[in-house]
Amino acid sequence: MFESAELGHTVTKASYARQVPKLREALLDAQYDLLEKKSFSTLILISGVDGAGKGETVNLLNEWMDPRHIHTHAMSVASDEEQQHPRNWRFWRALPPRGKIGVFFGSWYTYPIVRRAYGEIKDASLDQAMEEIVRLERMLADERVLVLKLWFHLSKKQQKKRLLALSADKRTRWRVTESDWKHFEIYDTFRRVSERALRQTSTADAPWRIIEGADARYRSLTAGRIVLESMRTRLSQTRQPRPFAPPPAKPDEPNLLRALDLSQKVSDKRYDKELEALQGRLNLLTRHPKWRKTGVVAVFEGADAAGKGGAIRRITGALDARQYRIVPVAAPTEEERAQPYLWRFWRSVPAYGQFVIFDRSWYGRVLVERVEGFCEQYDWNRAYSEINDFEEQLSGHGLVVVKFWLHIDADEQLRRFKEREATGFKRFKITAEDWRNRKKWKDYEVAACNMFERTSTEIAPWTLVPAVDKRFARIKILETICDRLEEQIKKG
Amino acid sequence: MFESAELGHTVTKASYARQVPKLREALLDAQYDLLEKKSFSTLILISGVDGAGKGETVNLLNEWMDPRHIHTHAMSVASDEEQQHPRNWRFWRALPPRGKIGVFFGSWYTYPIVRRAYGEIKDASLDQAMEEIVRLERMLADERVLVLKLWFHLSKKQQKKRLLALSADKRTRWRVTESDWKHFEIYDTFRRVSERALRQTSTADAPWRIIEGADARYRSLTAGRIVLESMRTRLSQTRQPRPFAPPPAKPDEPNLLRALDLSQKVSDKRYDKELEALQGRLNLLTRHPKWRKTGVVAVFEGADAAGKGGAIRRITGALDARQYRIVPVAAPTEEERAQPYLWRFWRSVPAYGQFVIFDRSWYGRVLVERVEGFCEQYDWNRAYSEINDFEEQLSGHGLVVVKFWLHIDADEQLRRFKEREATGFKRFKITAEDWRNRKKWKDYEVAACNMFERTSTEIAPWTLVPAVDKRFARIKILETICDRLEEQIKKG
Predict the structure, then answer these.
(1) A–B: how many Cβ contacts below 8 A?
(2) What was the pLDDT predicted at A434?
């Protein structure tokens, strides 16, 4: 794979001087077209061998294009805030919005490749990490991020020569670090591991482009051309057609919900006692020493007036306000609309020791957006597995993911709407939209059943909560959270 | 000052039970009015003596109101990212948008009061910190943040009793930390220092409300009522009238700019040599060991086509792309419009070791917003000192603040506009707005001269750059940056 980047290409000074002005002009043009159309964002991942000209090329790209609309991020050591969050959080927060260009110096490849090269993980783990990356990049492509992956290569001999040359000159000596030499020592392993990683992740969505790094002029022109061609190709496309995965078969009847026993009740007396006990238990769990190595992501979905707000209050009543955050999910803001749909949820993902409650969530994609036709079938259909991947990343970080569907029947909703209208409290205002949503009751039930089926995973199962009796629902929810958190704490 | 909170108020259980439902209802109503009108945001600062019920009260406020629209932040130990940024950065990033409620547990008061109590700073420094806070809170008030400051008080005897009681019960023992006892030891000093601080900062914009903390029911009701009354009062106001500071006298002629010698030139040969030397010098400075304890905020203002972009490129050409960020300032986004006008600039304030370039800046307030009438005279008029305070905070953190006004005359601009139109490059597109702005040339010059006069401070002086000769401008800018940064590094 890397042999093609060891052919010893060079470019003469004269040829370079001739080619650069045109390339630069064309790059600027492409950048301005992107900025104007805002039809996608460009994310350039910079990887490869130390000393192969990564830094120089990034600086050059900034010089050739308009640096005001390029944001370069050094993805080296994670800050403590980054370490407290799931691994990909740092990438999500640095993602360029549509119209802009982002450069990641180091990326989601760095950690698995380096760990494998130093023998900290096995091939199987590397492979799994690469599979996850393929899915991530596929999703980014679908969400209109052009991911450009540049790998800068040097042969072993070239790398040694380059590091020695840099070290010999006192103006460049600072650039060669101890870890560069340490990496060089395992050149062969690093090469083998990289080759394995790249081969698995060179996809149609985001192919690897390997750049011969020895000759500065050749390297610069090549990188510039790749960026130009990729952006131009993407600018000329409207939407990439992609083979369609079959959408989930609609159930004739939303049986999973119909089968719920909505008559389940908890008596007043039992409720008071159990609520107090469960709140005490939850409070204790969030003061357990291991709480600092976990956290909770709680998702609340269900029909309007199903009692989400009341249930949420019973949870927060057990917690310290400094530890929890409730995220009421409404229409996305302008900044959020310029990003992949999961971006706004990544913004609120908890750090260790935090309890984040989503009052409606990313499941909007396969519920309201599907039912109301706010997004295309292709988009909500792919969301199931994207969401599973997302939740796996949360769970993989040690967070507990609990998901509740609060269920009432249409009659109960009507009763509650009328009751709310009678009270006249602003916070219970019934809007025209609420009445409209009611008409699509069955569509929502079908969508919900498909959702349970596709996204109830072992690490993040759905809990279907009969919610006609509010007290029953609250107890069940608190109990589930306590059980799951306790399990995580025992395990962690 | 604290005696009024040592009167031994108590509330009986029966009276409490009678009063709470009404208070709660009223609080919820106020919260929903705020959420609907979005006319301001509410920021509650929680301070006071350990054991006086701060945490309990915050939890209760969340319980009484709708916790989905309250965000509580523990402002205790700063994270490493926070430590890398100017001190107030952590508060700015947690500021609630209009319509929402934010609770800061610990605030901008904590650090100066604690430091003074432990003898790390003198009274004079405390007083200065308090003066700065008064100005900050005044600005927040003007920017439609309702700042509610609650101080929870206990007498020395009460505090001791409380800490002992908490320690005796194994369910609450965890809540008493070693530092609580350490604080208790210096109760008298803490009280004296707090009193001094509070007296200076109890203003009409943000008066301190001292709450007697010994009786839980009394404390809860009092806190709830203060929040309710403050929000209700603010909801009923439109805009607070405030005595007007006189705006700067308009100069008859913008002499400061007219006096600039625009004929200054640098020859081709000298330019190439000096540019290289200065870029080399700048590059070296950003690799100095002390670079890790400083950073640069560079502001670029000036007429359209004055050459800001080109000058910026000559700076970034000397830097590593991982260290710099260019912030092109255009219309604020929806999220930014829901915050004080400085908020969006705080978002981009550099950490140590970063070089941030603002292509237009917060000075828009006293330039375009003033000239075009986008904000009222009162608002742009107060901006001068608010901006000085802002820049002082950056500088106080060790950052270098450099501000450039690139000046050309109207004829030169016309020449450049025509030249740009002739090239047909998208990036040089001349819009109708550009032509419109030209008509107000003199108004902008007058506004600029007022701005220089009011905001050229010792720590952040304006550099007026004759920019008809682009090479002259670039050299002058690079030289200024190098000099200022070198000075900072020597000093630091």
Answers:
(1) 120
(2) 87
Other beta carbons within 10 angstroms of residue B428's beta carbon come to 16
Tell me, what's the pLDDT at B241?
A: 63
Helix (H, G, I), strand (E, B) or coil at B36: helix
- What are the tokens at A324? 């929890």
DSSP string across A262-293: TT----HHHHHHHHHHHHHHHHHHTTSGGGGG
Tell me, rounded to whole angstroms, the distance of Cα B370 from its chain centroid: 21
CATH fold of B255-491 reads Rossmann fold (3.40.50)
Which chain B positions have a beta carbon within 8 Å of A322's beta carbon?
55, 58, 72-74, 105
Work out the pLDDT band at B425, boundaries 50, 70, 90: confident
Q: Is the ipTM of this complex over 0.90?
A: yes
Average of per-residue pLDDT values in chain A: 94
Q: How many residues does chain A have?
A: 492
Please measure the distance between the N-terminal and C-terminal CA atoms of chain B and give it in whole angstroms: 41
Number of H helices, E strands in chain B: 21, 10
Q: Chain B window 281-320: which residues touch A at a Cβ cutoff of 8 Å?
A: 287, 309, 312-313, 316-317, 319-320
Same fold for the domain at B3-236 and the one at B255-491? yes
Q: Which chain B residues are within 8 Å of A74, Cβ to Cβ?
A: 322
Pick the closest to residue A151 from A49, A71, A75 (CA basis). A49
Backbone torsions φ then ψ of B357, nearest 5 degrees: -110, 120
C-alpha–C-alpha distance, residues A417 and A229, integer Å: 57
Please check whether residue B28 is in contact with residue B66, taking contact to mean a CB–CB distance below 8 angstroms: yes
Determine the distance in angstroms separating the CA of B101 from the nearest CA of chain A, rounded to an integer.
12
Residue B384 to residue B346: CA distance in whole angstroms = 17
Instruction: Find, among A396, A292, A352, A355, the residue nearest to A81 by Cα.
Output: A352
Q: Are A300 and A358 in contact (CB under 8 A)?
A: yes
CB atoms within 10 A of CB A258: 13
Q: What pLDDT, on a 0 to 100 scale, did the predictor assign at position B252?
A: 81
How far apart CA A396 and CA A79 sit, in angstroms, is 19
Partner residue opposite B103 with nearest CB, options A68, A317, A321: A321
Instruction: Identify which of B69, B335, B427 has the shortest CB distance to residue A66.
Output: B427
pLDDT score at B358: 98
Q: For position A240, what pLDDT does the model report?
A: 63
Task: Assess whether pLDDT exceeds 80 at residue B428.
Answer: no
Which of A333-372 are b and which e, b meaning 16 or more Cβ less than 10 Å from the residue's Cβ? eeebebbbbbbbbbebbbbbebbbbbbbbbbbbbbbbbbe
| Per-residue pLDDT, B240 | 63
What values do phi and psi take at B403, rounded to 5?
-130, 125
| Domain boundaries of chain A, sorted by first residue | 3-236, 255-491
The alpha-carbon gap from B237 to the nearest alpha carbon of chain A, in Å, equals: 20
* Cα–Cα distance for residue pair B193/B110, rounded to 1 Å: 11
* Tokens representing residue B285 in the block: 């400075």
Which residue blocks in A286-409 are alpha helix, DSSP H?
308-316, 334-337, 343-346, 368-371, 377-396
Q: Is B99 left (phi over 0), alpha (psi -120 to 50) or beta?
A: left
Other beta carbons within 10 Å of A280: 13
CATH number of the domain located at residue range(s) A3-236 in this protein: 3.40.50.300
Surface-to-core class of residue B4, CB atoms within 10 Å of its CB (0-12 exposed, 13-18 middle, 19+ buried): exposed
pLDDT tier, A425 (very low <50, low <70, confident <90, very high otherwise) = confident
DSSP structural state of residue A461: -
What is the pLDDT at residue A431?
Answer: 85
Q: Would an 8 Å CB–CB cutoff place B326 in contact with chain A?
A: yes
Interface of B with A in 85-114 (CB under 8 A): 103, 105
Token pair 């600027």 in the structure block, residue: A28
The two three-digit tokens of residue A129, written as one number: 């990490």
